[in-house]
Write a structure and sequence with these properties.
alpha/beta; TIM Barrel; 10 helices; globular
Length: about 280
């Protein structure tokens, strides 16, 4: 549970780490269009570092429910200059949020140290061998269906067991292939309804028991909107509550948009989690 990313070493048994979301897209569900230029995206990335982010996750394609894929060339055009510039300005590890091996390769060449794949490396058969060959780290997320179809009445017999067994199997396959540093993500909001999401967060300790660091992304998600009856831009308190629950149930990393506020939340939640 101690991983090294470039010059940075993180011990996932000591505290919970923050991954800041940097969407270089015009149509993200939460902040689409805010950081579409390289200049604005780099500025936001460095702001998140100053606010306490331990990782920056750069994405060039929205994966909101119902979204359409973006051409590989366009996704590369959006993210590569941002990753290159951030890599020169900070040692904080940069991950690329993509399920396409061509995009991942370009991002790695630009300086990305982690590939965050919503399909757990199943959409593109070249992704797993690429990540193994390049000796970078992987985040494997569970998703039922595709971003376009995932919220069309998702069903499970036992969501915690099914998601857990799937992620454990994918993580072991990556380890066998030679990927040394793997994190797993239950995929809150990706092919799950309200009760599925609540059950997954409540039982995160099941996933932690598999022996891989656990990344969770509850930030501003639709399940919070359902509970609070509030739009995306008014879910800060709901996100704070969900992040606290994630920490207390064993999350290693939380992926968030509001880094400054969630850093404060983590400070208190970690103190509670690690108290005698």
């Amino acid at each position: 549970m101690v991983y090294t990313f470039g010059s940075v070493r993180y011990d996932f048994t000591v505290r919970t780490y923050l991954m800041g979301v940097l969407n270089v897209t015009p149509d993200s569900f939460s902040d689409g269009g805010k950081f579409v230029t390289t200049e604005s995206a780099v500025k936001r990335g460095m702001q998140m570092v100053e606010e306490g982010a331990d990782f920056i996750d750069v994405g060039g394609e929205s994966t909101r429910p119902g979204s359409e894929p973006v051409p590989v060339t366009e996704e590369i055009r959006r993210i590569v200059p941002v990753i290159e510039q951030l890599g020169k300005m900070t040692p904080i590890p940069i991950s690329v949020d993509t399920y396409k091996s061509e995009v991942a390769k370009a991002a790695i060449e630009a300086g990305a140290l982690i590939v965050n794949d919503i399909s757990a490396m199943t959409f593109d058969p070249e992704m797993l061998p690429l990540v193994a060959r390049e000796k970078v780290s992987a985040v494997l997320m569970h998703m039922k269906g595709t971003p376009k179809t995932m919220q069309q009445n998702p069903e499970y017999d036992h969501v915690v067991r099914e998601v857990g067994e799937y992620l454990q199997g994918r993580a072991e396959q990556c380890r066998v292939a030679g990927i040394e540093q793997v994190l797993i993500d239950p995929g809150i909001g990706f092919g799950k309804n309200l009760q599925h999401n609540l059950a997954l967060i409540k039982h995160l300790s099941v996933f932690r028991s598999y022996g891989f660091p656990l990344l969770v992304g509850p930030s501003r998600k639709s399940f919070l909107g359902m509970l609070l009856d509030l739009p995306v831009d008014q879910r800060l308190e709901g996100t704070a509550a969900a992040v606290t629950a994630c920490v207390l149930h064993g999350a290693s990393v939380v992926r968030v948009h509001d880094v400054r506020a969630m850093k404060r939340v983590l400070t208190v939640a970690d103190a509670l989690y690690h108290s005698a």
